[in-house]
Amino acid sequence: MKTIPAFRRQKPDIIQPAKIKDANYSSQWRLIYLRFKKHKLARISLFILASLYIVALFAQFIAPYGLQSYDSKYVNAPPMGFRFMDADGKFHIKPFVYELKSTRDPETMRKVFVSNTEKRYPLQFFVKGEEYKFLGLFSTSTHLIGVEEPGRIFLLGTDGMGRDLFSRIILGSQISLSIPLVGVGISFVLGLIIGGISGYFGGWLDSIIQRIIEIIRSFPTLPLWMALSAAIPPRIPVVTMYLYIVIIFAFIGWTDLARVVRGKFIALKNEDYVIAAKIAGVGNTKIIVKHLLPGFISYLVVATTLAIPGMILGETAMSFLGLGIRSPATSWGVLLQEAQKIENVALYPWKLIPLGIVILTVLTYNFLGDGLRDAADPYKK
To answer: In 158-237, which residue ranges form alpha helices assigned H by DSSP?
Structure first.
């Protein structure tokens, strides 16, 4: 028998598996991310929302004036735009604003404002103004933009008390953007826990929870808000009012998510992998957290995102009707109270600017939710 020389007796090469780069073999979150990147409108909406929340976080620094700042000489003053070209046609590198001078319309005798071209105030950054606590940590009086005294800058005009509308919109975003976010967060936890208990355990417990949900959902939304708001004591601190408004939204908003979670739990609890976990002695809590929730967590993210616009509109409506946040605090709904009278809208249309901000925020949240819903759809290519 012919023998093979030693130098020819070599071990066969081990074929290394090629690295799979196909997106079809990626994780669930990776697939959602890749599909979300293709949704251009959702990415733009995410950028806008991120910008709004950054502005709300640093609102006191960005706003030129505080909530208590007003000037009776500039009641219902129109917006002041930045200028680079003066009345003589000379170009200035640094933008500036003219002083506003009040006068009377000879025909209507209504107070109007005109630009005084003799007094020019250049725009300045990091100017000193009213003192505030930066992020609640330390006191400072530095503001992002402003002009030298006695100049005033009203980028979006003023309200009926001579308060800067731009500053109040920026400061009001802290409440109008945070109340829905906190309310949805509490509703998410309540809906997840109560809906999970109802769907997983079933029986008489499920029946009781569903009847409670039906009772809450049977009330019309606006009258229910009014009834709950009427129960809030008058003249309470702003922080306490904020807490009560969040509780009202959380009390109403958890029912929708709870029913969805219940239906998902009923559909998944009889799957083979869940039954196998029960046979193996795995506890109910671990089955819910490790096996059931991951099966539809992407849907929960989408549902939460789409629930926020409804709460933004709810907070705006409550404050607009005087049932929510009240002066001296401010929110976008409080700012829209002056737009209730048609003469205010006709004579001072800039008071509707907060309405445009509300519409923009609601639309961006809806577009973001649509993008997340499309990305989370397992059957969408």
So the answer is: 165-201, 203-218, 221-230
